[in-house]
Amino acid sequence: MNREQLLRQAPTNRQFTALHAVHKQLAVADLAIAALDSCAAGENLDAWESHCLRGALGALYTNFFDLAWTEVLLAMTPAVERSPGWDQRLAHDIPSIDAFRTAFDQARHRPVPG
Predict the structure, then answer these.
(1) Across the 114 residues of the chain, what is the mean pLDDT of every consecutive 10-residue run?
(2) How much is the pLDDT for 89?
(3) Selection from 38, 72, 40 nearest residue 54 by Cα
(4) d(CA 95, CA 85)
(5) d(CA 72, CA 75)
(6) Three-class HEC string of the chain
(7) Which of 13, 26, 74, 104 could form a disulfide linkage to 32, CB 3.0–4.6 angstroms apart?
(8) Residue 76 and residue 64: Cα distance in Å, rounded?
(9) What pLDDT score was predicted for residue 91?
(10) What is the pLDDT of residue 41?
């Protein structure tokens, strides 16, 4: 995944904060899908990425859009910058990239209250 390129194309935190809820939902889903699409063919997600993306989905469906944004950004954290021992503390039942892509696509199109 080319994290820097994805971040250059994404809204800044200031821009994201100023968005309406509907546009925040779209921005989160779009960034997550772009990150998933940028994974190399045959590449699998690791436990860190899976954990953060699950958190992002849960936050999207409960309308915590700033948290969802943060979780997607955390999912994109390079392994060398992550908390020590993360790979031993997180669950290793990891959904496929396609499963996450489908989930974020569904979240992208859900109605946002208010």
Answers:
(1) 85 95 97 89 85 96 97 93 86 89 95 85
(2) 83
(3) 72
(4) 21
(5) 5
(6) CCHHHHHHHCCCHHHHHHCCHHHHHHHHHHHHHHHHHCCCCCCCCCHHHHHHHHHHHHHHHCCCHHHHHHHHHHHCCCHHHCCCCHHHHCCCCCCCHHHHHHHHHHHHCCCCCC
(7) 104
(8) 19
(9) 79
(10) 66
Which pair of tokens denotes residue 60? 């999207």
Residue 46, CA distances (Å) to 57, 73, 87, 93 in order = 17, 15, 8, 10
User: How many angstroms separate the CA atoms of 64 and 62, rounded?
Assistant: 6
Q: State the chain's maximal CA–CA distance in angstroms.
A: 41
Q: Which two tokens stand for residue 84?
A: 């020590």
